[in-house]
Amino acid sequence: MNRRAAVSAINLIHGRGFLNGWSHKSGILSPPFSLFSSKAFQPKQSRIDFSCVKELKDAIELFQKMKSMRREPSIRMYNNLLSVTVKIEQYSFALYMFDEMLRMGVPVDVYTMTIAVNCCSLLKDIKSGFAIMGLFFKRGYEPNVATFTTVIKGLFLDHKVVEAGKLFNKILRFGICEPNDVMILAMVDGLCKSGNVLPARDLVRRLERSRLRPNVKTYSALLDGLHKSGMVDDAFQLLSTMTEKGISPDVVMYSSMIQGLCDLGRLQDVKVLVNEMSNSNISLDVVTFNILIDAYCKERKMKEAEDLLDIMKQRNVCPDVVTYNTLMEGYCLRGEIDKARQVLDSMVDKGLKPNIVSYSCLLNGYCKKERVDEAWLLFLEVPLKGMEHNTCTYNTMIHGLFSKRRFSEGWKLFKDMGARRVSPDMYTYNTLLDGLCKNGDTDEALSFLHLIEGKGVNPDRVTYGAVINGLCKNGKHDVARDLLNRLPSRGVQPNARIYNMIIGALCQEGSTEEAKCLLTEMQSRGCAADDVTYNIMMRSFLKKKELSKAIQYLEEMREKGISADVSTFSMVVDQMQTEDDFLLKLMKDVWPKDIVS
DNA sequence: ATAGGGTTAG
């Protein structure tokens, strides 16, 4: 539906709608103006309250109302409506209104164009955005710095990093428009979010020496990028360079810094930063609190998280949907699903509307506790509450059903997904493949794998792992090995987990020597064996009473600091003929540290 | 309250 709206916007532009009321043939490229354009003739139209537009139906109603007004509302009013519609994330409807406006001959302007291009960007359809720009350009409107910034953002959102960079360079080189802070930010943020942190840092450094000095927002974007790439020290370094240049960090920058440290579990450093904030009189906002609450929730410390909720209320920082969703996730992690449900109810009491994330969270909680029937009821409740299921809720529900071996219901849901134009992702395919394999349908799994490979989706290690595991469990390790050998050519490096599946299968049927060869092969391909690999091999040799071969692996494990597990250990002890001091000492070295004592 | 801006949740 999204894409269709964007495409139909272009069609309308190409069609007659766009040209209504325009003197095309006369060659006048300036916008037509109304005879009554002077302010004296314009009635006051500020009585429209755009802040009451909270959901799609409000926007629809208001649009109908504006269309039927006796005196045609100004383009400003229409732009206002488009703008609030974007704020409530109804991009397709905004584009629909844009189509209608063109059809009705409303004299759209550069602001309208920028909003429309932004909608295309947000729907990841930058091509339609370019089409809209082109047609405006023909009508004598030139895109300005805001429009180009929107396009740059759109290119990044569509993973067109090179194109975004080229456009930015062209703008600079040919002086197409004067770049400003917002455009610089779009570049730096886009580079960081697309994983190009170092080019982003280079850009910032170049800008520092020019008259386009980066501001605190630009530094924030870069700082966040450094954190997400695990460059904490560089992040601290950036913070101090920025301060030296006389720019002080604000609450967003601190929040980003705190998030980075929370990810690393460096909670002591977080405390230092929070103190630093209060010393600089920067108060924590709802996002900062949410980050801190999330850190506690991830450590399952719900008491501390609830205490923080109290503190934020005391400080008149109003908890939002994210706050409550974070708490719900924390309770679900602890398996306290009923407590999570209470949080959901409490947010409703406080006048906050749970969103699809809230439901997705509970859904996941119920499924993990194997309360699939309750999950299903909740799943049915979502559309009744006026919300739309997305890829994540479908994935969770399908996974939940499959975990109870309710395969046909899961597949039905997958079909439903397609019917509702919710696009499946890697998680969906991995779940489906895993389901097929667990149900013993390995042939179907292979053809399904073939199907998704043909769709241009790149299956990942988990995908292939699911199929290889299925093949092994169904006695088809030869097919599994073929697939394994094809992985590198598909850009996937097999890991120890995948090798272990096949090694395990070989051992299972007694082909221990063949398994041993595969282990050697895996090592020669640069994939290190892990504790599971060694334990499988050792147990297999021990089962065949080949103690000496098992002991070779014990030595290898000691060299690598890998531990053996209990059952392997007891098998070795059982087969020891004498009190072999050397062997006992060797085993002590590979023994899990907490059991040695 | 006419467009484009950095931090949080599934």
Question: How would you describe this protein?
Answer:
PPR repeats lie at residues 74-108, 180-214, 215-249, 250-284, 285-319, 320-354, 355-389, 390-424, 425-459, 460-494, 495-529, 530-564. Belongs to the PPR family. P subfamily. Keywords: Repeat. The chain has 597 residues and is an all-alpha fold. Among the domains are: 1-32 and 45-143, no CATH class; 178-282, Alpha Horseshoe (Serine Threonine Protein Phosphatase 5, Tetratricopeptide repeat). It has 33 helices and no strands. The protein has helices at residues 2-14, 56-67, 75-87, 91-104, 110-122, 126-138, 145-157, 161-174, 181-193, 197-208, 216-228, 232-244, 251-263, 267-279, 286-298, 302-314, 321-333, 337-349, 356-368, 372-384, 391-403, 407-419, 426-438, 442-454, 461-473, 477-486, 496-508, 512-524, 531-543, 547-560, 566-575, 581-590, 593-596. Helix 4 (91-104) packs antiparallel against helix 5, helix 18 packs antiparallel against helix 19 (356-368) and helix 19 packs antiparallel against helix 20 (372-384). It is globular, with a radius of gyration of 30 Å. Residues 1-43 have low confidence and may be disordered. The protein binds one DNA strand of 10 nucleotides through helix 3, helix 5, helix 7, helix 9 and helix 11.
